[in-house]
Specification:
Length: 625
């Protein structure tokens, strides 16, 4: 069989195995890396012999950096720290810097004293496992559904520490090869590569964003390919200037394009996400297939114990130090301590290092590669398969997907935003009316101004992280169109629109009540002809209360807004079925606002209780109100 046929067969089999593993992982709700590693090991030379990475020769050393650069660029492009508070970002940067240093030193000590690695090889191993795996962490967190702040910290750590850890590992490798253990040499090498990558990635990203704004004639497909070409061009340029600075270039390039809000960013993110998934699938299968099962066996119990120390002692120590003084609870810190799976960067760099050490005549290349892959296998299996259970036990899972994005800074929308915010919910608003946006900003709620239904603005506003989308503009037809587009593009857990049941498309819910007259209620709120009340549905009177409440809703005197249940607070849907124990927050139309005390009609006091209005008499009648 000639070489071209072998190469074709290798790529076809690798892609089929990689994509098949991705499909199976989604079906089984497992981290994809688990099945990718198993597929590679089982089908490699040590298993069924279907995948032989050695056929690529030096091609593997070319393929790995380009694919890893693409993966890190996609991570930088997707990373959103704009909605993270200072306490979260502070802990994040400490994890990336101080945490990385602690992992390097403590990991080397454990690898030397327990794993019996020579000091230089021990430090090389520790530098490789400083990184976590954003390609593992992201899907894992989406499956588990953890609190927003934990997701921001873990995803941010994975994206930002990957280039830093990879550069640190390259510098340590150079030290090993040159037999120079000077701390100054390591610090200088890391700083030089980080600075070069940051400058080239930042300047290149800014210039490309200017070009894409000017190049209106480019179609979306060609625009995406231009970004890909520039990415690889900048990575190559960075590598030529300072070796191994390209990964930092890729991350900063992605961060800059996100910060500059390039046109078509949503489509670009989708395109790069698909390429990233393909790259991960191919790389993991190839790298795992190149792993010798015999080398894993040779590590024995010392190798397993080394990884356990890394997981159970060093990682909790890192989290404790880096989150000291933050407002994170002990449960949140415990979850951060448990979740630190290693991923594609550790695997790819370890594979390249094994080749480099072997070519340099230094023993230990295969052992260090096996130890890194053992770390990946143990962290991914142990943490990936138990993350949901641990998050549930620690009570750090989000109650569904929390937070609400409200489209429409109408009086009703602004009132809802305040009610939700005062009850601890994350709220973001969006509108096309600049004047309405300015009014909403006075409520201290994040507001975005959009000239139309801009899906990029919705992405920036956090639609992918928030649990509910509510369209509450003045026009019910617009509400239906907005909600339908969001449902098709982003698939949030709950999509609601202020319209009648007859106007409600399939797949979404009408909000509040089927008798809603949004124009009328906006007018009532604007003229302060409403009162805010709360009602608890009592077990003993639930039947009478529900009948009476439904009668008041049908009469147009009451508009139910929010219902609080043990599983959390949510916006009321049309034809909501009331349950005993429900705490209902509603608006009562009062046509004579001047007859009420001023304290009840100014400032929208959300703690005003007027349950007596909805307490039914023996013969429920809306006229009794």
């Amino acid at each position: 069989m000639d070489s071209s046929t072998q190469l074709t067969g290798l790529f076809v089999i690798t892609v089929v195995l990689g994509i098949g593993a991705q499909v199976a992982a989604q079906w089984l709700r497992l981290p994809s890396i688990v099945l990718l590693l198993l597929a590679g090991i089982l089908c490699g030379p040590s298993g069924l012999g279907l995948v032989h990475p050695d056929i690529l020769g030096d091609g593997l050393e070319v393929l790995v950096p380009l694919c890893v650069a693409l993966i890190l660029f996609e991570g930088g492009l997707s990373l959103d720290l704009s909605r993270a508070d200072q306490d979260i970002t502070g802990s994040l940067w400490k994890l990336v810097t101080v945490g990385g240093l602690i992992t390097l030193v403590a990991g080397a000590m454990v690898a030397h004293w327990i794993g019996d690695f020579p000091w230089r090889i021990a430090f090389l191993y520790a530098s490789l496992v400083v990184v976590t795996g954003p390609t593992v962490v992201g899907p894992l967190l989406r499956q588990v559904g953890v609190e927003h702040k934990l997701a921001v910290i873990l995803e941010g750590e994975g994206v930002l520490i990957d280039p830093i850890g990879a550069i640190l590992a390259v510098v340590v490798l150079n030290v090993v090869l040159e037999q120079d253990l000077g701390v100054a040499a390591i610090a200088t090498g890391v700083a030089q590569r980080l600075a070069t990558g940051a400058v080239i990635g930042g300047v290149g990203g800014w210039l490309l964003s200017r070009f894409l704004r000017w190049a209106w004639f480019l179609e979306d497909e060609l625009r995406n390919l231009v970004v890909l070409a520039v990415l690889w061009g900048l990575v190559w340029l960075s590598q030529e200037m300072v070796s191994e600075s390209g990964l930092m270039t890729a991350v900063v390039f992605g961060l800059m394009l996100r910060w500059c809000e390039v046109p078509g960013e949503r489509l670009l993110r989708r395109f790069k996400g698909q390429l990233s998934t393909l790259s991960i699938s191919v790389l993991f299968v190839l790298l795992a297939a190149d792993l010798s099962i015999a080398s894993l066996r040779e590590l024995g119990g010392a190798g397993i114990l080394t990884v356990l120390w890394l997981m159970l002692v060093i990682r909790p120590l890192v989290v404790a130090v880096c989150t000291w003084g933050s407002d994170l609870s002990w449960q949140q810190k415990a979850f951060l301590s448990w979740i630190a799976p290693r991923g594609i960067v550790a695997a790819s760099v370890a594979s390249l290092f094994a080749i480099t050490l072997t070519n340099a005549g230094i023993s230990g290349g295969d052992a260090i590669k096996a130890q890194v892959f053992l770390t990946i296998l143990m962290t991914v299996f142990a943490q990936g398969l138990t993350a949901r259970w641990v998050a549930t036990k620690l009570n750090v899972r989000a109650q569904g997907a929390s937070g609400v994005l409200i489209a429409g800074c109408t009086p009703l929308g602004r009132l809802l935003a305040r009610l939700l915010r005062d009850r601890g919910e994350e709220v973001v608003m969006i509108d096309t009316d600049a004047e309405a946006v300015e009014i909403a900003r006075k409520e201290h709620v994040p507001v975005y101004l959009s000239s139309a239904l801009d899906l990029n603005i919705l992405q920036e506003a956090g639609i992918t992280q928030l649990g509910t989308y509510l369209a509450v503009t003045k026009n019910t037809e617009v509400n239906a169109v907005l909600a339908q587009r969001v449902l098709e593009e982003f698939h949030p857990p709950r999509v609601l629109a202020a319209l009648s049941l007859e106007e409600c498309p399939l797949g979404m819910s009408a909000a509040f009540t089927s008798q809603l007259s949004i124009k009328a209620w906006n007018q009532y709120i604007a003229t302060e002809a409403v009162r805010i009340g709360e009602l608890v549905i009592e077990e003993e009177q639930s039947h009478l209360q529900r009948d009476h409440l439904d009668a008041l809703i049908r009469s147009g005197k009451v508009l139910p807004l929010l219902v609080e249940r043990p599983e959390g607070l949510r916006i009321v849907r049309a034809n909501e079925e009331w349950q005993p124990g429900d705490r209902l927050i509603y608006l009562l139309h009062n046509p004579k606002p001047h007859t009420l005390p001023q304290a009840l009609i100014s400032g929208w006091p959300v703690n005003t209780h007027v349950e007596s209005v909805l307490v039914p008499s023996e013969t429920p009648s809306p006229q009794g109100t």
